[in-house]
Design brief:
289 residues, mainly alpha, 14 helices, 0% strand
Length: 289
């Protein structure tokens, strides 16, 4: 009897929540599932169905990925880029999140927190071109160092792999800071004080207490950074130049320059499949965290 009443109450709660959930699910259907369905259809078309040219269903675009090793090599390069950017975002973002959550208080925390989220307030192109002004030969970084140092130097990082890393880290490190901040903020300070009073060193507290308890924020931030960086194209295109050819830039070329939407759609869904495979392999860690 109790089980039946609980089921009835659960159904009643779901009926009350349906009007609130319907707009969100309707928006998701229109903004995500319909475009994805269209792109899946385009990926199997020999030509764009709306171009007026004859077309048929084919697996040739997926076969092009298998037959040509250049796409696989570019995908591996993009995976390496995503791992590097995620690593540096964690190295820079976790200490900043710890300082925000456990060291700073009051107005100083608000100021630093504002500086962390400041990149979200500017356009992505503005951020990338700002780094181009800083990293190029004779740019801002060169001018500052030559004004300070007694000897002449020329630091030209433009159109290089480190420039792409710098631009992407600047764009995505706030995600790490925000997610880790929420996890660190939830850790009770009395637990840390108890560990310190029992003789644990700062490194031991960090390794045995803070890192395990903040693992959900670390994993969530890493996923938020890793997934979009694999398919990034704006920072590699502008800051990398000829060395910035990655899987995402090839997909962009298919849609913007070559107008080969079927191949671009097929490459996009191959990338989606690889990302889902990586997340599936990492699901035990995600579930545990």
């Amino acid at each position: 009897m109790a089980g039946g009443s609980s089921n009835i109450s659960r159904k009643g709660a779901a009926a009350k929540a349906a009007p609130l959930l319907l707009p969100a699910y309707l928006w998701l259907t229109l903004a995500i599932f319909l475009p994805l369905s269209a792109m899946i259809f385009f990926s199997f078309a020999s030509n764009m169905p709306l171009s007026g040219k004859p077309w048929s269903l084919t697996l040739g675009h997926y076969g092009a990925f298998i037959s040509s090793d250049i796409y696989a090599r570019l995908l591996l390069t993009s995976l390496r880029l995503a791992f590097d950017v995620t690593f540096w975002c964690l190295v820079l973002g976790f200490p900043a999140a710890y300082v925000l959550a456990k060291v700073l208080k009051g107005r100083s925390r608000e100021v630093v927190f504002l500086l962390v989220i400041l990149p979200f307030w500017s356009n992505g192109l503005v951020r990338v071109f700002s780094w181009a002004m800083v990293l190029r030969s004779g740019g801002i970084l060169d001018s500052i160092l030559n004004a300070i140092l007694p000897f002449k130097i020329n630091i030209d990082l433009m159109y290089s792999y480190p420039a792409v890393i710098i631009g992407l880290v600047h764009s995505y490190v706030p995600y790490i800071v925000l997610t880790c901040y929420l996890s660190l903020q939830a850790i009770d300070d009395s637990i840390i004080e108890a560990a310190r009073s029992l003789g644990a060193s700062r490194f031991t507290v960090l390794r045995r207490l803070i890192l395990p308890l903040s693992l959900p924020g670390i994993v969530a931030g890493a996923v938020l950074v890793f997934v979009p960086v694999i398919g990034s194209f704006m920072e590699p295109r502008i800051l990398g130049g000829r060395t910035g050819t990655f899987y995402g830039t090839v997909i962009e070329d298919q849609f913007v320059a070559v107008y080969n939407w079927p191949l671009g759609a097929a490459l996009s869904f191959i990338l989606l499949a690889v990302v889902l495979l990586i997340l599936a392999l990492a699901s035990p860690i995600l579930r545990r965290s």
